[in-house]
Fold each of these.
Amino acid sequence: MVLFRALGWLLLALAIAAVVNDCLGWWSEGVFRLLSLGDLWTRVHLGSLQSTQAFLSSHARGLLWFWFLMPILRLPALPVLTMAGVILLWIGRRSGTRAEGGFVIGSKPPRRRRGRSGIT
């Protein structure tokens, strides 16, 4: 469950980075364009995108690349990353048996106080 929450927070951080990139592009160019997942993957690591395309085109006759992955890579990154992050946070939520904690830090078990022994 901790892994789902960590990935959810990571995806939300990437969504914030995408919206900052979109807003900076809007401010500098005067045109608001949403960054697509393919553009994001290109900026992060172009070699892995090219090797994935080559592998899927050669081993799956290109059907998996053109009919499945290309439409996904054309989607805007901001809503996709936001929805995926929220879904992962929802999946990794803590059960209701524990005490409710803070939004960022989480819950901690109650502290036990030590009794004074031997002193009368």
Note: The radius of gyration is 22 Å.
Amino acid sequence: MIKVLNKKYKKKRTKKWYQLDYNEKVWILMLLPGIIFTLVFRYGPMFGIIMAFQDFDPIKGFFGSEWVGLENFQYIFILPGFTRAIKNTIVIAFFKIVLGILVPLILALLINEITRPLFTKFIKTTVFLPFFLSWVILGGMMIQILGLGGLVNTVLEQLHLEPIMFLLDNNWFRPVLISTDVWKGMGYNMIIFLAAITAIDSSQYESAKIDGANRFQQMLYVTIPGMAPIIVLVSTLAIGGLLNAGFEQVLVLYNPIVYETGDIIDTFVYRVGVQKELYSLSTAIDLFKAGINIVLIGGSYYLAYKFSDYRIF
């Protein structure tokens, strides 16, 4: 009896195309390009995962290549440079995540204390502008600025100091990657944190003033706790991408001299798959990375719910 009622209820709730009003039809039509794009360019290529379990031959194709099972996954761990790429990826991504949250947070708190609107708008625009530029453009700029004949080394020479090979020295290359990535992306997170600050109830600040709290104490006990859900959200999303250390940035800036500290999983996959044409191995490495990312995302969502009682979905 209950199943029959549920079926009738679903039939009543289900609308056919001709029963939809104009606004509902417009929304559906507007969603279609995004849905088609996702199916074709996101879900469609996932069929290529089969290469990770084959000795893939482009001539034989997916259905003619020899099936090898987990053999590729066993081999990737003895590939020269693979463990180094994992280590570099974790180290670079970790500092990018920490500084990519901490720097915009401090910047948002400082900007919130500025009382001059024009000056605030100028800083926001200046800080946010690099976010819209691609790493192809910014990478060329960094090479011109940090190269041996670049702006920084020219200033060092004028000060009678030894030039520094920022992009050719393993001791300097990793800090350059981290600092330039934080500089490029800090404007985006800063805007998010500023939006979180504006959502805080002003009555809380008034209560803090009545209790005798100064500006620093208001920031410490009102602003930061009020931003906590957004900070947790940004941190959770960032932890899920721990193995994404910035493929475009590293590809533009790195070279064989700095592979020791700059080579990451994505650039390693690029060299194995595209340059050496070892498609099965590169697919296996990428699938291995995707599996770890799924675990990290699930773990970060669980921690966000457990310690902050905050759910993203």
Note: DSSP finds 15 helices and two strands in the chain.
Amino acid sequence: MGGRSSERAVSLRSGRAVNEALNSAGYKTVLIDPRNLRMAEKKIRRIDVAFLALHGHGGEDGTIQRWLSKKGIPFVGSDALSSLRAFDKVKSKKIFRKQRIPTAPFTVLTSANWKRRLAHFRPPCFAKPACDGSSVGVFCIEDFSKKAVTLIKQGIKKHGRLLIERKITGRELTVGILGESALPVIELVPKRSFYDYRAKYTKGMTEYLVPAPVSKKLSARLQQLAMRVHRGLGLRDLSRVDIMVDRRGRPYVLEANSLPGMTNLSLIPKAARAAGISFEDVCQNLVTWALQRSGRIKNGKEEKKKIR
């Protein structure tokens, strides 16, 4: 938990929530913050399995997964390569397009091509760092005004690449994946112009409709689509797939999160509760699956509620 990324504060909250749940389930835990690498390495020698609540750079981009794999330490969640595929929005979008997963039209801006690329892209659209999470650095562009161009140039300078994605007007929904099952669909109704960092992590700034008030047909379609994304990126254990549904009922995948938030405002715990699965059981299942992969346990005896 923690780390050095722009999502450090959220990661610490996720880590504390997971720690409390695992303690309640009877696990002996140690909190590890890789911000201090020397201290982190000393603590890591004591563990049997790593529960990753490390959001952002260093946690979701495959860095910690690659390091743990080299050390032979089992960990919760996706492997290094799949984590990077999900974290890099440009890589994800290219995979979606190749696999015919519906996603909004996009282009990628760099310092060398931004003028030429924008000349062929019509607003309104969203600008996003190619590699970041929690809506950090995301902004909406209604027209290519002087102010918008300034923001674009600043974004490119800070992040290197900007993903420009056509704005989809409609309903914002999300589907969590736990094990091999899609959880109930959640609709997000932010009180801001879109589901930005403040709307995500400020209590009362977003209304969460769980399960989403959509037809059974659309719900099943979104769950199937989320599972396609999860498998298409090679993810495992858990993920969260964010989807926009336009006014004509057409879904567009925005992105997949390989290590979604685990705070009291987070969406995976909300969806799991709607499916009758406690947060404690979610965390315990994830630990069990990681240990099973490592061969340290051969069955799910530790598992309180099996997810099929």
Note: The CA atoms of residues 60 and 83 lie 6 Å apart.
